[in-house]
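2 proteins. here.
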Amino acid sequence: MSNTSMTNRTAAGENFAAQALSKAVVYFIDGNSRKFFSRDKTRKQNIPNRTLGMSRLKKMVEGWHDNVQTAIIYDNTTDQEVTRYKDGSWT
């Protein structure tokens, strides 16, 4: 990875991030930001499900609602914005 401000991922972490269908960039009230990748598969099905992954990302962000300023979910393959969380609601 060329970006030195990020921590190095393991090979498994790189593979996980590459296979994720969606990613969330979360900007916290304290000024920090983090990137999270969707978990699109269930234990029983090995087929990725974009709806499942997005609902898991949304649930994670909503659980942190007091600490999140803005969260943006992107399609991980095209980098297009899918939805945005601000002021306690998704748009």
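next one coming up
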Amino acid sequence: MRSVLRRFRRLSPEEKERRRFYLLPGMGGRAFYRKQRRIRMIALGVGLVVSALVVLLLYLLNNYYAFPR
């Protein structure tokens, strides 16, 4: 019940100042979502490259040890 009353009471100027915060560029809005999308796409690309290298390594190891020369 107290938390409900706390939401509706008026804030003093000191309280308002304490609750204020600033967003720097890239921390919210469209720029933030563009940044997150870019990070996701880079992570996806890195994951695909790493998985391709692991597949190639396993393929080469399998062929070398299955049919030694």
